[in-house]
Amino acid sequence: MTDISALAILGGRPSFEQPINVGQLYFPQWQRYEVAMRGIFDRNYYNNNGPLLTQFEQQLGHFFGVKHAICVSNATFGLMMLVESLGISGKVIVPSFTFIASVQALAWTQLTPVFCDVDATTHQLDPKKVSQLVDDEVSAVLAVNLWGGACQIMELEALCEEHDLKLLFDSAHATGCEVGGKKIGGFGSAEVFSFHATKMLSTTEGGCITTNNDDLASRLRSMRPSYGTPQTLDDIKVINARMSEAQAAIGLLNLADFEKNRQHNEDIYRCYASGLSGITGIRLVKPAGVSRSNYQYIVVLVEDERFGMTRDQLQNALIAENVNARRYFYPGVHRTIEFEPFFSAQNTPLPSTEKLCHSCLQLPVGAGVTIQIAGKICDLIKRIQQQASAISGLINR
Ligand code: T4K
Q: Which fold has domain 30-256?
């Protein structure tokens, strides 16, 4: 018979009947979306610079405080288009502690990634380590603003100016975050945001490129072919990376709800901060370098010896309870088959990245998580720690 008080990994019933995911999944009220969809059907115009996309791009420009916001079908395409349209060649310095898409975008455009380590505390690209990697073949830095925090943006801007390097930001996690009271979006040559379903601002799939550079914006618009583009430039590649009217409709409605959703994430973060504070060996990562965060991810560090089990053992125990904790970004981009040759050729150690890849765990946040659920997850982590030796014994058997 099932012992209902036992942890699921030890034979009990899962704490949650349905999976609780890490993602955001903030979606507009159905009735509001239905009205927007009716308008699209009435106009019989579904794609290609339609009225909703135009409105969404204008509102995004205002939201990010930039002259241009160019919507694309996802952030990966956005990054590919950006490096291509900036005419970047040779080597690009990029963190390995990022989602693989940041680096895949470089590989697709025949650029060579030069992996740089991150700061062990903030998890963001470390400008001092960047400067050690600059050589004649490096033409750009692709910095990643992680977790709802930010890199040391001003330091990176100064460094890139000194060495005449292009600076671009993968800000997939940073929608609505602020640095010194200024929205992330207008730094470097351009920034790229993700509007995937698991992001703070979602269009199901999607993303956008933000810039204050008129010429770059017009190149990007020509690259993503759409009606209304002033003229197609003949010296660039063209790719279909358009966002549809249905996606723009969701984006507009979610943008109107953004602050409410951001506040919900912040409340959940505070709940985790208090619930996890007494647990030895678990450290909640505070979003670094921002004056305002969107709390896109709840990141904890698991210190094996102090907690009593490994990060992976804790993840397995949580998954058994239907808490789908993730271990972004294990094993590290430099350890994936696709990119290992670049790393081996480079031969630069990445100690902080290696350590973080083995100790970071992401806990659920977003629309599917209430204060009550977050509190229950903290209690669950305490119970798992109390049963650490039984769980380790089970896994090692
Ligand atoms: N740069 C950085 C730093 C990034 O983190 C990312 C993407 C990119 C660039 C590229 O952005 P995009 O090209 O994707 O716009 C996810 C996402 O696919 C990806 O967008 C994200 N970052 C990355 C960190 O995570 P998965 O495979 O872990 O997530 P996924 O799709 O399995 O969703 C997580 C869970 O949420 C699922 O197990 C189930 C649930 N879920 C998900 C979706 C999409 C739902 O319940 N409903 C849904 O519709 O990759």
A: Aspartate Aminotransferase; domain 2 (3.40.640)
